Amino acid sequence: MESQKLVEKNFNRKVGDTIILVKRKILNLTLVNCYFLKTGEAPLPSAHLIGFSHAYRPVNQLIKQTTLLIDLTKSEEQLLKELHRTNRKQIRQATKFDFQIEIIDQPTIANIREFQSFYNEFAVNTNTYKCGAFHVKTMELLIESNNLLITRIVNGFSNEILGYQVYITDKETALSLYSASHFRLKNDSIDKRMLSIASRYLTWQNILYFKGRKNLIYDMGGLTTNENIRNFKMEFGGEISEVYSGYETTSLLGKLVLWGRTIKLRKG
Hints:
This protein is 35% helix and 29% strand. It is α+β, with helices and mostly antiparallel strands. It has two domains: 6-68 and 244-267, no CATH class; 76-221, Gcn5-related N-acetyltransferase (GNAT) (Aminopeptidase).
């Protein structure tokens, strides 16, 4: 159902030149993670290795990917209209459940650990990468710069956490970094249906939350080759846009690290 149009200008007409930088040192290696690189920005800080995530313009040999950008300057009525009819139906059905949505805009290390435990159980059952020590440290550094936000949806009747979403966010962009539910752990069709509704309802309420916070763009976090995940994201409307991710280095140490990373990825 990919009817959305590829946005060639990548929303640069709407966003400014904000950028999120996370710097860390691993032994003798200085690593900088850069999020939301746009046009016209100042030179990046020096480092052995610079990692780019969702750059909105190409940098050297970064890998081009596609993502789905939702324009939060549109009215709530228009955003709702652009949802797939399945989403609109399930969002209406969500009011019949005792769902409680929790917005954690100032998360703690304990919040990250709780999410990590939930996510890694999800990862095992979906055959995807786990959230490891490196990713946890990234989230901790994003807490320090006030650029991390966690949301979750809870079954008010049983107090069971049904799903999580984690965002990297600044004043303009809200990027979905992680999304997880335990859909595959449920055998009962009624429970599966409830989790499907909960996941869509959480995403929709998050979109409205960031709109209310005056963010300009909701970034769905990339369109993968997993058909189920891709379709889930596409049903929220928006426009397909190109983004760029990868690493850049000019140092020998950085090149050695990237070589080792490539070998590790090849081995799975």
